Amino acid sequence: MLHICALGLAWWHISGALILSGAPGSRMVALGRLIGLLVGSAVLLQLALVSRLPWIEPSLGCDRLYRLHRYCGFVVAALFLGHPVLLTLGNARRHHVAPSRQFLDIATDWPYARPAIVASVIIALVVASSVPPLRRRLTYDAWHGGHLAMYFAVGLASLHQASGAEMLKQLWWGWYWMALHFAVVGALVVFRAGRPLFKLAQHRFRIDRIVSESDDVTSVYLTGRRLERFSFRGGQYANVAFLTKGLWVPHPFSFSSAPNGRFLRISIKAVGDFTSRIRDLTPGAVVLLEGPLGAFTTAGAAIGRKYLMVAGGIGITPIRALIESLAVDDRDVVLVYAARTVNDLVFAAELRGLTPRCHFVLSLAANTDDGHEHGRVDGAMLARLVPDVQEREAFVCGPPPMMNSVIGALRVLGVSGSRIHHERFA
Questions:
Q1: pLDDT of residue 283
Q2: b/e map 21-47, b = 16+ CB within 10 Å
Q3: Which residues, including other chains, have CB under 8 Å from residue 425's CB and lie 6 or more apart?
Q4: pLDDT at 181 over 70
Q5: How many CB atoms sit inside 10 A of residue 101's CB?
Q6: Does 315 or 44 have the greater pLDDT score?
Q7: Alpha-carbon distance 74 to 95, whole Å?
Q8: What is the DSSP string of 99-137?
Q9: pTM reported for the whole predicted model
Q10: Beta-carbon-side half-sphere exposure of residue 30 (alpha carbons within 13 Å)
Q11: CA dist list (Å): 221 to 8, 110, 158, 214, 261
Q12: Whole-angstrom distance between the N-terminal and C-terminal Cα of the chain?
């Protein structure tokens, strides 16, 4: 609220006369300036949302922050394009020239206008790549690289902002705006880059061994110094970069074992170029961890002794760590784990050892007499397998369609929304 007041005061001080004059194009120019200030503020908000601020991310979870970040991104892109359009059309009317001529004048004569134009192009391309039909065609590395280019675009746009009328004519606003930038960028550098590097220096994470869990799932065991001081909760994940050729781009992977002070374990399903190369890793390789991240933990659940875990596919990884954490306190845990075939069941023996009430659901198995459930997890199956489902804290993790179906079924069965916990890792 304080920032909105400061922004409005700065804008009115520099543009109030234009609005009151009523001259052709003046109000359009004033609106363009206001949008420019809003764009700058929204960009700072976007950076803050992804800066891993420790007092925001754990309470909301990265998935909710990223969804908000994504929606804001489309708004920022629209505003970013509206700013030059309004200034061009407004000044063209004020100076009685064609919009094309006015745009050329702005590009050649205004301070740092060309960097701002380049920034606009980069932002437009990145936002376009985030539209679902295009996003699904991109590899994770291409998507990640595009978003890294956004930092370059923000830097170019900031040069243009620093030379704006609001900065040049109001010293107090210039100092305030610069302090705001330093605070947000500083938080980004400290928590996104500094903290992972500090943890690497502190713990010296390295690959201890690679274990094949199934035909397409591999567990990577990590070792290091003073791992008992690396604090995380079952259900959380980390952005993991293997500092070896071709695998240095960070990818999000859940911890598949609870904290034990001896090793960390992440389990990875081969679903693309990067994950298909995990089995090529060698022991001793250095690993950079950004995390722990996520709010898919029992910290957000009401205190109780009865839990329901529903997992689908590789969604078993955070669920397995959650069950291990609860087993220490002898909690009553029911697991419903859906997979395609018996060969796709990961950690089956471990899960049976952690909780006696394991229900494995196979969707493609031909033999219905193999001791497993068959079909898909729906309300009827949950009501039959877990008669006291309304009394349990429910944790759901798996492919988005499966999660949506299970969450809907739980609500129909009378489980309150506050007792249904999920995090959309996709």
A1: 94
A2: eeeebbbbbbbbbbbbbbbbbbbbebb
A3: 63, 237, 252, 254, 315, 318, 397
A4: yes
A5: 12
A6: 315
A7: 32
A8: HHHHHHHHHHHSTTHHHHHHHHHHHHHHHHHTSHHHHTT
A9: 0.83
A10: 19
A11: 54, 56, 43, 16, 13
A12: 33
Structure confidence by residue, pLDDT tens digits, 274-295: 888 898 899 999 999 998 988 8
What residues have CB less than 8 Å from 331, skipping those under 6 apart? 305, 306, 307
Res 54: pLDDT: 77
Q: How many residues does the chain have?
A: 426
Amino acid at 171: L
Distance in angstroms (rounded) separating the CA atoms of residues 10 and 2:
12
Angle at CA 292, nearest 5°, toward 287 and 297?
140
- Kindly report the number of other CB atoms within 10 A of residue 247's CB atom: 19
For residue 52, what pLDDT is reported?
A: 82
Contact 163, 111 (CB under 8 A): yes
Determine phi and psi for 337, rounding to 5 degrees: -120, 115
Residues 6+ apart with CB under 8 A from 424: 63, 67, 400, 403
Task: Give, as one character, the DSSP assignment of residue 232.
Answer: -
Question: How far, in Å, CA of 139 to CA of 127, rounded?
Answer: 15
Rg of the Cα atoms in the chain = 26
Q: Please report the pLDDT score of residue 80 as a whole number.
A: 78
> What is the C-alpha separation between 3 and 266, in angstroms, rounded?
42
DSSP 190: I
Sequence-separated (6 or more) residues with CB below 8 Å from residue 113: 106, 107, 160
Tokens of 400: 């988005």
Asked whether 212 and 265 are in contact (CB, 8 A), the reply is no
CA distance readout (Å), 63 to 69, 106, 191, 201, 294: 10, 40, 18, 28, 8
Q: How far is 362 from 368, CA to CA, in rounded Å?
A: 9
Helices 62-95, 99-109: inter-axial angle, 10-degree rounding: 110
Largest CA distance in the chain: 84
What amino acid is encoded at 275 in this protein? T
User: Mean pLDDT of all residues in the chain?
Assistant: 87
How confident is the model at residue 426, as a pLDDT?
A: 57
Least confident interval from 141-145, 164-168, 336-340, 399-403: 164-168
CA–CA distance, 401 with 151 (Å, rounded to integer): 33
- Residues sharing a CB contact under 8 Å with residue 311, sequence separation 6 or more, in sequence order: 319, 320, 335, 336, 337, 338, 396, 397, 398
